[in-house]
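ok so i was messing around last nite and threw this chain in just to see what happens. nothing serious, just curious
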Amino acid sequence: MKKVWTLIRDFFKLADMLLFALCTVCTIFGIVLISSATLTYENPAKYIIVQTLAYFIGVALFVILTIIDIDIIADKWAFLFVFDVLFLLLLIPFGVGAEETGNRGWLRFLGIGIQPSEVVKVVYIVLMAKHISYLKEYRNLNSPFSIAQLVLHFGFMFGLIVFVSDDLGSALVFLFIFIVMLFVAGVKLYWFAIGSALVAALIPFVWNNFLSTNQKERILAPYVSSIDPTGYGIRWQSNQSKLALASGQLTGRGLYHGPQTQSNALSQKHTDFIFSVAGEELGMIACCIIILLLLLIVIRCVYIGIKSRNTMNMLVCFGVASVIFFQTFENVGMCIGLTPVIGITLPFFSYGGSSLFSLFAAMGLVSGIKFRPKPERFHSYF
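result:
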């Protein structure tokens, strides 16, 4: 019993309760929206129960990862890397979900589904932060050999995700994490210029040889009106989303009273288009509150990263912040028709148990970093 009380005391002493409160508010808000989005589904209570259970699992992970020093976790980098690879490889024989999502990124056992890329994403942040910080502190980060190592590390994970799950959306999240971490770590801009030039040169080859017709149309649909001019094909989801947002105006049509939401005209409304549900039923005010809450989480993660004690901790915080920022930007963009519909969910708000508890695990890592000493080079700023 004494150990339990010591654990509780250590948690409240070390935890960033502001970050925890922001994440909890977002989750509760999300559960309310999910309850409306799934009202017309068969067994709607299931979605609320799953999301609630995921929240409590996430809270447990938040507590554990706040108390455990992240350096202890990162020192097990070889085990973490093997875990990432093996977990993703399970999708080859057991991956499901192609008919629903256009990829096979889910594992289902005994009726329980989990998306490995969501879990792997958190571990990847720790591994990449460890790798970059090692090269920065003990090698020359900007040497061709160091950059080659990092590109191979990222390229392997990016390629593995696309190969085993055909989930380009999740792979793009890994790309954004990688770019942000390199920039924050101090990689010279000429490496970004070289990388951009190489990517630009490879785009035609990849476009013509690796992307399906459906993937090409999804990428181009927001920008090329000749693709699905009737709006009943690949642009249907985006059109219905924009219609829902427009009909909500400033204050919304009322919770559980959105015409698009309750008529099932808006598909994937509890996951990819939960932002549109908020806009239709609670109005533009609710949409602004959602964006503000997520922006505050990003700012808090960045703030803690700047105050952290070393390069690795700083990179972990910025990596977590980059996930929230990219997914928010892409998801909102999907809903308003500015970015392609590629299956990126809205952090904390969209339905998804593995996504929710993985996000809380990531926030636990950031929370645990909060009270550790900050590096001397940042003392003049705070």
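not much to say yet. The first strand starts at residue 107 and ends at 109.
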